[in-house]
Design a protein that fits this description.
The structure holds two protein chains of two kinds. By secondary structure, chain A is α/β, with parallel strands linked by helices. Chain A has six helices and nine strands, in the order E-E-E-H-E-E-H-H-H-E-H-E-H-E-E. Chain B has a single domain (44-254), classed as MetI-like fold, CATH 1.10.3720.10.
Chain lengths: 191, 255
């Protein structure tokens, strides 16, 4: 179990967590849902180690945690293939991940040449290619059409490592399967 | 069919766009020279070209041009390396920034002539032009690089941290591509400055076999066509260095 014990954390002087405690399963898919600004992204940032709680502790995290950000954060000067390869370690593996994301033929395209949904899939391919013990995905299907989401969701579900997904859509959570946790806030509270 | 006719037309229009303004200003220069009517005050383009041609036939001309090019190029490269190094240092260390930034700002604001005279007291006159060129290049490169390093996209840096890129990989994949456009334009500005300050240093220090020394003697002996011809040499060499600079940077961008 990944445990957050009495976490307090503020972002831009706004209390996002106040003595917040939560247990997350360390296997399978966990979907996190809640209104905008309730603290879902901050929760992922704390789990990824990109932010530190002011008090409280997080235990049970694996050594390596991967994260797909809310923004695509692709290197604009590199092609889709290279963006994934920098993380995957080889061009061959990166190509396989792009194929899985239905991006065959777009390997040599630069992020500016891709649509929003395509960039999102490159970003997702990069996150899935990262070898880690826990994967955090912040709105992975943003900008994708429903038929594509139906094709890609099983790839995430069958990834083989614990995945925590932030989503606004209960439909997406249902497609991914696993547990759905609903929150409100800030400060973040479980519903 | 369309392409085969469009390409020569495009080439022709590019040629006109490049040569047209040059021709226009040569005509204006010629007219002005004809109105003034005194070679001593304003030699004509033809007389300048003739003098340049005569100078180019002597071995000394090539030695002087080569020496100046070498000195200024060395000063420029040293300035780029030092400016970039200082920009990295001031970006990662607040103490270094507090210490170095005011010095660079003073260097930028100080008249180049003051530095030339001062440096002439410290080092050999052979070295002064290269040193002055370096001194003028450092602030330009430092300013452009340190501000772009600070403005590097924080989201990309965080992504690099999340995917464990490490320092070298982050430098190669995030920092260098981010700063390359401003570094390129800073290099082009700096190389022009290197020429201006380097030749000014040569005029004041008179190292043997240099463009600046020849410019000085042209002034002393009132050989205005020669003065114009040597100035043309500086302009041509500056253009050549700029082309070389653009080529090297374009290759770096491609890589």
């Amino acid at each position: 179990m990944i445990k957050l014990d009495n976490i307090s954390y503020a972002y831009e002087d706004k209390a996002v967590f106040r003595d917040f405690s939560l247990s997350l399963p360390s296997s399978g898919i966990t979907c996190i849902s809640g209104p905008s600004g309730c603290g879902k992204t901050s929760l992922l940032r704390l789990l990824a180690g990109l932010a530190r709680p002011e008090s409280g502790e997080i235990t049970g995290l694996p050594e390596k945690v991967g994260i797909m950000f809310q923004e695509d954060r692709l290197l604009p000067w590199n092609t889709a293939l290279k963006n994934v390869a920098h993380v995957a370690g080889s061009l061959e593996e990166a190509k396989v991940w792009l194929e899985r994301m239905k991006l065959s033929g777009e390997e040599d395209a630069y992020p500016r040449e891709l649509s929003g949904g395509m960039r999102r899939r490159v970003s997702l391919a990069r996150a899935l290619a990262f070898k880690c013990g826990l994967l955090l995905l912040d709105e992975p299907f943003k900008g994708m059409d429903p038929s594509l989401i139906r094709e890609i969701a099983p790839i995430i579900s069958n990834h083989g490592i614990p995945v925590i997904v932030v989503t606004h859509s209960e439909g997406e959570a249902a497609l991914l399967g696993g547990r759905l946790l609903k929150f409100t806030g800030p400060p973040m509270k479980a519903i | 069919m369309m392409t085969s006719t469009a390409t020569p037309a495009l080439k022709q229009s590019k040629l006109i766009r490049t040569l047209g303004p040059i021709f226009f200003w040569l005509v204006i220069w010629q007219l002005a020279a004809m109105i003034v009517g005194k070679e001593l005050i304003l030699p004509s383009p033809l007389s300048t070209l003739r003098t340049l041609f005569e100078l180019a036939q002597g071995r000394e001309f090539w030695i002087a041009a080569g020496h100046s090019l070498l000195r200024i190029f060395c000063g420029f490269i040293a300035g780029v390396i030092l400016g970039a190094g200082l920009a990295i240092l001031t970006s990662i260390s607040g103490t270094a920034d507090a210490l170095i930034s005011p010095v660079i700002r003073i260097v930028r604001a100080t008249p180049v002539a003051s530095f030339i005279i001062l440096v002439l007291l410290w080092i050999s006159r052979f070295m002064v032009p290269a040193f002055i060129a370096m001194l003028m290049v450092i602030p330009v490169i430092w300013e452009a690089l340190s501000s772009t390093i600070r403005e590097t996209d924080g989201d990309l840096l965080e992504m690099a941290r999340a995917y464990e890129f490490g320092r070298l990989k982050t430098l190669r994949l995030v920092y260098i591509p981010s700063v390359l456009p401003s570094f390129t334009s800073a290099c082009l500005t700096a190389q022009g400055l290197a020429w201006k300050s380097g030749v000014a240093a040569e005029v004041l220090c008179l190292p043997p076999s240099s463009v600046g020394t020849e410019l000085y003697y042209s002034k002393i002996y009132l050989e205005t066509p020669s003065l114009f011809a040597w100035t043309a040499v500086v302009v041509i060499l500056s253009f050549l260095l700029e082309k070389l600079c653009r080529l090297a940077l374009r290759r770096a961008v491609r890589q």
